[in-house]
Amino acid sequence: MANLTLVQAINLALVQEMEADESVVLLGEDVGLNGGVFRVTEGLAQRFGDHRVQNTPLDESGILGAAVGLAIAGMKPVPEIQFEGFLGPAYDQIVNHAARFRNRTRGAITIPMTLRVPVGGGIHAPELHSDSPEAIYTHSPGLKIVMPCTPYDAKGLLISAIRDPDPVIFFEPKRVYRAYREEVPEDEYTIPIGQAKVVSEGDDLTVVTWGASVFQCLEALDGLPEDVSVELIDLRTIDPIDTDTIAASVEKTGRCVVVHEAPMTAGLGAEISARVQERCFLHLQAPVQRVTGFDTIMPYYKLELEYMPDANRIGKGIRECLAY
Amino acid sequence: MTPATTKTTKNDRRSDDLSNETLIGWLRDMQLIREFESRTMQAYQQAKIGGFCHIYSGQEACAVGTINSVEKSDPVVTAYRDHGHALARGMSAEACMAEMFGKITGCAKGKGGSMHMFDRPNNLYGGHGIVGAQTPLGAGLAFGARYEWEVLGTGTKKVCLCYLGDGAIDQGAFHEALNLAALYSLPVIYIIENNGYSMGTAIHRHTANADNLIARGKSYGIESIEIDGFDVRNVYDAFKPLADDCRDMQRPGFVDLKTYRYQGHSMSDPQKYRTKDEVADWKSRDPIASLLHHLMNERECISEDAWSTMEDEIKTVVREAVEAAEAAPIPDVDTELASDVYALPMDNLSPSEDYKHGLKNPLM
Ligand SMILES: Cc1ncc(C[n+]2csc(CCOP(=O)(O)OP(=O)(O)O)c2C)c(N)n1
Ligand SMILES: [Mg+2]
After folding, report:
1. What pLDDT was estimated at residue B51?
2. One CATH from 3.30.1070.10, 3.30.420.40, 3.30.470.20, 3.40.50.920 for A197-323
């Protein structure tokens, strides 16, 4: 066991998968000597050589397109895009190629690629460096979307993602990168993609969230009266959504609040609330509440924390849902 | 990377015909940027500026030399290392500093930050955070200007300056922009501020044929030249005729403007990729020092005293900009979080029940 940050746990997973499988190669802007903008790939170029940790030019479309080509050629590419906002130039390769190759070739060719991307706000950065675009990619069939928020989960999920035969976008909540440490086993282990985690058990209400918002929700739970018992679910995987875990919880509690950083309209809160009413209609005692970012552009710095759902807003949503 | 040497000899320089006042004005512009950036770094270290902050020090002659080769009405668009262009274009130090402090008096109402300098009255169209994405915008701005002049008959002949870094030339969007500019014969000059690095990657490791960037412009049939961007007179000497031609003939241009940034890529850069000697080498032919030398010793039009008065004046301007930025209010949550997204209010834009219109842009 080692006491690791999220950054270190991801680094450890990369080291172990690269050691175990020579077809795993990393590519991205400054991922080599510099170790990437957030130093997630620190030390890997020195350890595995430039040919396995490929510094690329500034060309997101090229990086993702080349990763798709590498995957077709039998490799397991792990490209890094520096910030979620820079997925824009790569969108075509992700959605029109990576996601569709299996289908387009009717199973003859698959794309075992893991695209690593820091995501979300809370680090004082402006738009394009603080966005939460997970719903956009969830809407594209053929991609799996993962967003762990603990070092332990990150290691196990990244190993699963790299071994997965299909393309996975592995979103890393940058607000959590160095926020805290936890015990992470040195030994290799996996966490299955598609399995949510019940962070705390409760009977009165279910909160569904993922990414850095998990910590905001924990803070909100701390501020609730002693006699309120909330079940907190960390999705960990966004696509496929673990509807069974959510439904089992809401059947028990009868109330559900979904929390996410992304804007509300057509966000994942809408998808989750639709699934909840499909599966738990007769159990529901209140409409599903959404506590989310607003339908505006992520503002810079001084207003950032007003934009993101914090313990206050989440607590308010929970109380309203309970009082309904 | 080592500094290029200036080959142009005395007397055959176009800039020799410029008045002392003009050149002293450029000295002031460059020193303003230098001083502004020192105070920016200080404020960043004091956590008064958030996010990412890219410092222009070292590259002053690029913005000042090129922007002073065109008219105020010509459109300018650049990337995220944009404080220098904003100041050279005439944005007040206060609006620029307040933007980085996240204050409502900033040029983007403190909602954009360091990378998003916009100044519509001065025809500065950003400040863009997606590397390379501004280059097709430059083609579009030039298209618009040409359309205005040629089809609508309402404008004069303009030329658009579109800046990008050496890293940005690797983006697909740039190649699309070059092709459009050449195909439609658009009056836009792509100015590569080639400081030798794309973040932590040296140019020879990030782009093919790195010693011959102008081959890219030429391959589209665009007139393409290399300029030593570390000497502002030299920038003007070489750039002014190109800008005039592109305006007159309404066609594109391409410039490999060789320069160097003194600071790290952004404020959080360990700079493992270069040596202190390399930085010192470039600093030894500092663009401000060399212009000052010319004005003091060759033209003999500025004295030690006048220079130190100018330095003091600039220090005061920048100090006052910092003080004003500090004193200004942050954007009001109820009005500013929700505003400037659509012309008309929409649902769920705001944390408050009622939509309130935001304040008018302070530069408009
Ligand atoms: C599409 C995109 N990819 C990556 C980045 C991150 N990034 C910002 S600046 C930069 C390097 C750009 O270098 P260059 O174009 O030479 O400009 P310079 O910083 O030298 O002025 C990178 C990789 C970004 N902002 N946008
Ligand atoms: Mg550069």
Report:
1. 87
2. 3.40.50.920
